[in-house]
């Protein structure tokens, strides 16, 4: 899994950017989970566990598939559902998952968050 | 079209896709319950099964996003795409520089079209028509023609099974291995009806190397 070579305040930058995008139309929320803490902001708090489990499972599956198919360190993982999608990645040692409606341009989101 | 033919057709489609896009390193198709339907030669079974298990673990937890339709993993050296195709999933592994537009057209257009086409091909009913073992009776004389005769009930049974108006030709296989196709009619001798017999002209008996009283295998001929 890719650890971005960015300054130490990288996570703080990402957190700031997450705050700025969370109000955008179509953004359902995000989970940023570090070794000792987690920032969670979801429009529907009753689904926190569901989203957290999906996010963790997707990141694990992505890593497994990367090893199986020898595609190198994982940059991003994207899950598309019938009505929503999830973009997951690693930022330093933090696992980030952003949940959004299906029509949202996730590539633009990556650029906005400096994830690419 | 039976399952084997379906799998071979899909496998050929995957092979052709790989030929046109060499950046695709592996590809296979599997069902929602994890059964592999078709895969290219590069996809070894163990890796494939592990990957399916990983994917299923995600799919089981994807109700919150309305079920898993597609899963993309972008790595430093390549990418993996899993995409829902009808009621199955297509998995593709490709190099980093693979044309994303092409990959999307494969997962969203080409394979679904191939699958739809395969599913609409009329099944070959003859594979389901049961053969019958019948006792040979020889037909001789000037006016016997070249048709064999069997019970009307058998012909009607085959017609019904094959959803055909009638069965006009049959394939006869002798136990010695000789085979022949002939026109078929109903047995015209009332005394021989309903006795599990096939009346075969002498000339055809010679071709099949069978004699009166021997058993032969009979089934509707392929059209």
What's the overall average pLDDT of chain A, rounded?
88
General form of chain B: elongated
CATH architecture of the largest domain in chain B: 2-Layer Sandwich
Instruction: Kindly report the CATH topology of the largest domain in chain B.
Output: Beta-Lactamase
End-to-end Cα distance of chain B, whole Å, is: 16 Å
Strand order of the main beta sheet of chain B, please? Answer: 6-10-7-9-8-11
How large is the share of residues in beta strands of chain B?
Answer: 25-35%
| Annotation, overall tally of beta strands of chain B | 11
Radius of gyration of chain A, in angstroms, nearest whole number: 13 Å
Task: Write the element-wise H/E pattern of chain A from the N-terminal end onward.
Answer: HEEHEEEH
Distance between the termini of chain A: 14 Å
| Adjacency order of strands in the biggest sheet of chain A | 2-1-5-4-3
| CATH C-level name of chain A | Alpha Beta
Q: What does this protein look like?
A:
- The complex is a heterodimer of chains A (116) and B (223).
- Chain A is an alpha+beta fold and 116 residues long.
- Helix content of chain A is 35%, strand content 31%.
- Chain A has helices at residues 10-21, 48-69, 106-112; strands at residues 27-33, 38-42, 74-81, 84-91, 94-101.
- In chain A, strands 2-1-5-4-3 form a five-stranded antiparallel β-sheet, sandwiched between helices.
- In chain A, a hairpin with a 4-residue loop joins β1 (27-33) and β2 (38-42).
- Chain A is globular, with a radius of gyration of 13 Å.
- The two termini of chain A are 14 Å apart.
- Residues 1-8 of chain A have low confidence and may be disordered.
- By secondary structure, chain B is of the alpha+beta class.
- Chain B has two domains: 3-120, 2-Layer Sandwich (Beta-Lactamase), CATH 3.30.450.30; 126-220, Barwin-like endoglucanases, CATH 2.40.40.20.
- Chain B has five helices and eleven strands.
- Chain B has helices spanning 3-20, 45-59, 100-120, 152-162, 202-208, and strands at 24-31, 36-39, 68-75, 78-85, 88-95, 132-139, 148-150, 169-174, 179-186, 197-201, 215-220.
- Chain B has a six-stranded mixed barrel with strand order 6-10-7-9-8-11. A five-stranded antiparallel β-sheet of chain B has the order 2-1-5-4-3, with helices on both faces.
- In chain B, α1 runs antiparallel to α3 (100-120).
- Chain B is elongated and about 80 Å long.
- Chain B starts with a helix and ends with a strand.
- The mean pLDDT of chain B is 85.
- The interface between A and B is medium-sized, with 34 and 31 residues.
